[in-house]
Every structure is written in structure tokens, then in C-alpha cells.
Design brief:
By secondary structure, the protein is α+β, with helices and mostly antiparallel strands. The chain has one domain (3-177): Imidazole glycerol phosphate dehydratase, domain 1 (Ribosomal Protein S5, domain 2). It contains four helices and ten strands; from the N terminus they run E-E-E-H-E-H-E-E-E-E-E-H-E-H. A hairpin with a 2-residue loop joins strand 8 (124-125) and strand 9. Helix 1 runs parallel beside helix 4 and helix 2 runs parallel beside helix 3. The longest helix has 20 residues, at 62-81. The radius of gyration is 16 Å and the shape is globular. The chain starts with a strand and ends in a 15-residue tail after the last helix. The model has no long low-confidence stretch (mean pLDDT 95).
């Protein structure tokens, strides 16, 4: 089983994340932010990864908790993927959500790069600042140690843009992490 647990304890937060890449999409999360919980639940549901997150703010600063949830979730996914042998490696998916359309491309090579364009217009979405929502995405993507591009193609509702982006990422991640029995190390270099 491709599983991992990561704990992050700082002077600002205490985060404990467990994941099972080969799960069924079961999610338990109480971050203190309903919209972040909704995004994490969407990641689990559409990637079919089991996720359990326990978090506690020690300084009551929302930015710190949102950032550390993203960091720890990304680190736990990276750890659970291990050497990444036998995976498909690449995943791509487009998700429409009403008037919005988002695309995500994932390469689970062990080189960190991310490009994110959510095209958000409002300064606050579901009680969270736009910059903290973007920072959650970036913290997650950077700590997953992969090459990931997520782009909102169009849309007028920021909530729909964010949801379509997270769902596109989740399905692309599921595709990339899928075991392919014909593959050893999925790289011409012989290492990831």
C-alpha cells in the first residue's frame, strides 16, 4: 500500500496528515475553514486518495493554518508515492463546472515546478482571502515535488473556478499515480 503520515509542528500550528494513494476517496478533515475542508474533500473524492487531516492553530492566524495544511498534505502525498516506480507518471484532465472550465496537467517526476492561474477576481471567496486560497494551492503543489500546471480557462464565478481547478488537479493526479504493470521507472533516464 502506498501510504504515508506526516506531522508538522511549529510555533504557529500542529498538523497531522495521513494519506492512502490506493484508497477509495474517504476523507476526514476539520481544518477550521469549511472551504478548505471542501477543497481537501474534493481532492480525496476525485483522486480516490484517502485523506485524514487533524489541524490546530496555535496563533489564530488563518494564513498560517491554511499554508501548513497545504504543505503537509503535499509532503504526505510525495512520501506516499515513494520512488514512483510502476506509475503512469502523466495525467491530464479538464473539468467544467457550470460556466467555468479548468485544466490540470500532472507529471509526477521528482522535480518541483508549478504553474497556477486561477483567474480569481474577488478578494475573498467563502470567507478566505484570495491570496490565501492561491497560497493553499501553491503550498500543496510545491510540496508534492512534481511538475504541475493548473489553469482556469474561463469562468465568471470564483467559487466555480476554484472547484473546477481542484477537481481537474485531483483527476489528473489519480491518472498519473495509477499503477501500470508494464512500467518500471517511467523515465528514459532510469530514475525519477
Amino acid at each position: 500500500m502506498r501510504t504515508a503520515s506526516v506531522k508538522r509542528e511549529t510555533g504557529e500550528t500542529q498538523i497531522d496528515v495521513s494519506v492512502n494513494i490506493d484508497g477509495s476517496g474517504k476523507v476526514q478533515v476539520k481544518s477550521g475553514f469549511e472551504f478548505i475542508d471542501h477543497l481537501v474533500t474534493s481532492i480525496g473524492k476525485y483522486s480516490m486518495i484517502d485523506i485524514k487531516i487533524q489541524s490546530k492553530s496555535l496563533d489564530s492566524i488563518s494564513h498560517h493554518l491554511i499554508e501548513d495544511v497545504g504543505i503537509t498534505l503535499g509532503q504526505s502525498l510525495d512520501k506516499a508515492l515513494g520512488e514512483r516506480s510502476g506509475i503512469r507518471r502523466f495525467g491530464y484532465f479538464a473539468v467544467p463546472m457550470d460556466e467555468s472550465l479548468s485544466c490540470a496537467s500532472v507529471d509526477l517526476v521528482r522535480r518541483q515546478y508549478s504553474k497556477l492561474n486561477l483567474r480569481l477576481k474577488r478578494k475573498e471567496i467563502e470567507g478566505i482571502s484570495e491570496e490565501d486560497i492561491e497560497h493553499f494551492f501553491r503550498s500543496l503543489l510545491e510540496n508534492l515535488c512534481a511538475c504541475i500546471h493548473i489553469r482556469v480557462e474561463y469562468g465568471s464565478n470564483d467559487h466555480h473556478k476554484i472547484e473546477s481547478a481542484i477537481k481537474a488537479f485531483a483527476v489528473a493526479l489519480r491518472e498519473a499515480a495509477t499503477i501500470d504493470e508494464r512500467t518500471g521507472i517511467p523515465s528514459t533516464k532510469g530514475v525519477m
